[in-house]
Amino acid sequence: MLLILVTKESNRLMTEKILEVDNLTTSFDTEEGTVRAVNNISFSIEEGETMGIVGESGSGKSVTALSVMRLIESNGSIENGTIHYRGSNLLEKTESEIQSIRGSEISMVFQDTLDSLNPVYTIGTQINRVIRKHRDMDNKEAREETIRLLEQVGIPNAEERIDDYPHQFSGGMRQRALIAMAISCNPSVLIADEPTTALDVTIEAQIFEVLDKIQHETGMSIIVITHDLGVVAGVCDFVNVMYGGEIVEKSKTDDIFGDPQHPYTRGLLRSIPRIGKEEDRLRGIEGNVPNPAALPSGCTFHPRCPHATDECRQHDPSLQEVKRNHRAACIHIDGYKSLHKEDKEIIINDRKKGESDD
Amino acid sequence: MLSVYKYIIKRSLLAIPTLLGVSMIIFGMLYLAPGGPVEVMMSSQPASAEQIQDIRQQLNLDEPIYVQYGDWAWDALHGELGRSWSITQGTAVNDLIIQRIPLTAELALLSMILAIAIGIPAGIIGAVYQDQIADHAARVVALSGISIPDFWLGIMLIVVFGVQFQISWASGSWIPLSESVTGNLKHLIFPVITLGTAYSGLIARMMRSEMLDALNGGYIRTAQAMGISNRTIVFRDAAKNAFIPVLTVIGIGLARLMNGALLTETVFNLPGIGQLLVTSIARRDYRVIQGIVLFVAVIFIVSNIIVDVLYAYLDPRIRLSGGD
Ligand SMILES: Nc1ncnc2c1ncn2[C@@H]1O[C@H](COP(=O)(O)OP(=O)(O)OP(=O)(O)O)[C@@H](O)[C@H]1O
Ligand code: SF4
Ligand SMILES: [Mg+2]
Questions:
Q1: How many CB pairs below 8 Å do chains A and B form together?
Q2: Among A78, A142, A239, B106, whose CB has the most other CB atoms within 10 angstroms?
């Protein structure tokens, strides 16, 4: 047992994984019962890499990010799994330990809504205090640093704009300010949850350029959360496709686009609108995202899947390597090892265990 | 900053028509009320129709009402509220008010401070510990503050502490601040509790709901993700946003406090503006009544302007747009 742990540990060091999420399950207590918003997902990211999490609305992308930040709302909890940051499990940290990691080691940018910055404090004040919280700087130094950061994310006249209030900034500028705040303490991991959804394409491109530039300068790892495969194609090294709280496909970006395996991913790819072909949007995936309080049996995608069979309704496929460095969770993929009897038993037992845990 | 001055001027100009309307209503209403002033004044001693006519003439009551209003309003504009008609006959209304204002102002101010001191923390606690025991406790306190009538609480305090425990300063009356500071404050303890708690409930309830709103703000999540401590988030991020709208209620509450002062002063036998108003109404001393009501209206309007300006000052979204 000890031996296994040691090997695992040294593996981790060898591959320089910054962040490793294993078997993460996060659930919420709701009026409809317990909702498993994230179900047994694993991923890891190395230094300087950009990872994408893509999926429709409600697939569990934000909950994944918030779990890593340990910012799950009070009605939710991380049921199972580990989240290792530089080898130590974030889930074992005290609140004050995690506070000193947030913003300085692992940071997060949210989609700009009108109130994602505090309306009653200036942009400068809000960035300034993050710097002073995590870095050894006095007020004056922090102010200079703030100006430098605002310039870095492309805000013109940063020296003057630093004293503006959020409502005096445009949406794109607020998003830049949020990025400046998130990178102000040189985090190793930056999670960007739909950072450009509210912006037009030109600004979106500029924002990702900024992120790319900073990544080159600092070597930070970035997790980009989006429902836009175009964004993924542009910026990610590898991708996790999420559906119903599970990762259903993961591989290098090129492989996902060049040779998508899971029917859901294929559906998503078909739904990318191409210029001049707006009607393509309509050829997306029929049906709706499942209600997480009542997920379908077997493969959660089966009600919407054009290839669904009886087997799909009974067995929940696990994520398996179907090609080299390419994993997917679908019974009917060529490379997928069919479910052996033992596998089925394990799955059934697991499920029973999950139910009795509740 | 220039826009703040512009804002103040704009708000002050807007107050002029309000004041004009208020003064007309104040003046007209009393004349519509049944029981002519002179008849009531003379009711204690038999008076001939001739005598009554004499007095009416003296007081200019035979002039058309708009002339009377014009005279009164013109004087009021110059800070002259006229002279009392009744027992204190001849005393300038200004003097009557000035005599009594320190007590009422002290009572209102202390009550306001008490109300804020209870209401704001109670509201914050209620929101932070939403639906937990601390929240329920704060809500019970707030609700009782709102629903217990001021005068009833006042009377109960007098009965329990003044009558039952024979604490001399608990049963009412008053010592001027100039005579004894401690004596003065002691006598105000129960009136302030009576008035302040009633109002604290309102502030607590409002603060709680504004805090809950603020705590749901996106900027709270942003601050959390930056590792800012919960304490800072509650007190610096959420509370400041929540307090801005609560401030408006506090401003409007000043009028409520004036109302409350009327009852509280009567219950505790405090010679303030409220008591003066009550006795003046009993005596149909029209000039004094008009003077007091106008005075209170002016205070109310001015405090509203101050609150609006403060609001604009605290909320950059309004401050920087010049309040449009
Ligand atoms: N606090 C909560 N209480 C109950 N359910 C929640 C809570 N937070 C998230 N969920 C549920 O978890 C599921 C996943 O939500 P999540 O926010 O992660 O979706 P998402 O993939 O980020 O979608 P979007 O693209 O809309 O942001 C949703 O069904 C949502 O209803
Ligand atoms: S397992 Fe079956 S239902 Fe699920 S994606 Fe594959 S084919 Fe479709
Ligand atoms: Mg989301």
A1: 78
A2: A239
Residue B83: DSSP 8-state? B
Contact A182 B244 (CB under 8 A): no
* Cβ atoms < 10 Å from Cβ of A331: 21
Looking at CA atoms only, how far is residue A335 from chain B in angstroms? 41
Chain A CB contacts of B324 below 8 Å: none
> Which residue type does A155 have?
I
What residue has token string 């060091």?
Answer: A13
Cα dihedral A313, A316, A321, A326 sign: positive
Cβ–Cβ under 8 Å, residues B292 and B97: yes
Residue ID of nearest Cα to ligand 2 atom 6: A330
DSSP string across A118-162:
-TTS-HHHHHHHHHHHHS---HHHHHHHHHHHHHHTT-TTHHHHT
Strands A106-109 and A17-30: unpaired
Q: Which residues are registered as beta bridge partners of A243?
A: A246
For A66-72, what is the mean pLDDT?
Answer: 96
Q: What is the pLDDT of residue A138?
A: 94
Give phi and psi for A353, each to the nearest 5: -60, -45
Task: Give the N- to C-terminal CA distance of chain A in Å, as an integer.
Answer: 28
Q: Which CATH superfamily is domain B101-314 in?
A: MetI-like (1.10.3720.10)
Report the C-alpha gap between B279 and B275 in whole angstroms.
Answer: 6
Domain ranges of chain B: 2-93, 101-314
ipTM: 0.85
Average pLDDT over residues B46-75: 76
Quote the ligand 1 centre to A111 CA distance (angstroms).
14
What domains are defined for chain A?
18-236 (3.40.50.300), 261-357 (no CATH)
Q: Over the range A23-48, which residues count as b (16 or more CB within 10 Å of their CB) and which as e?
A: ebbbbbeeeeeebbbbbbbebbbeeb
Q: For the purposes of burial, counting CB atoms within 10 Å of the CB of A233, is it exposed (0-12), middle (13-18) or buried (19 or more)?
A: middle
Q: CA dihedral in degrees (A67, A70, A71, A75; nearest 10)?
A: 70
Q: What is the pLDDT of residues B115-146, one digit of tens each?
A: 999 999 999 999 999 888 888 888 887 777 77
Is any ligand 2 atom within 6 A of the Cβ of residue A333?
no
pTM, to two decimals: 0.81
Contacts of B227 in chain A (CB under 8 A): 99-104, 130, 133-134
CA angle B35, B40, B46 (to 5 degrees): 125
Residue A328: CB within 6 Å of ligand 2?
no
A144 Cβ partners below 8 Å, 6+ apart? Answer: none
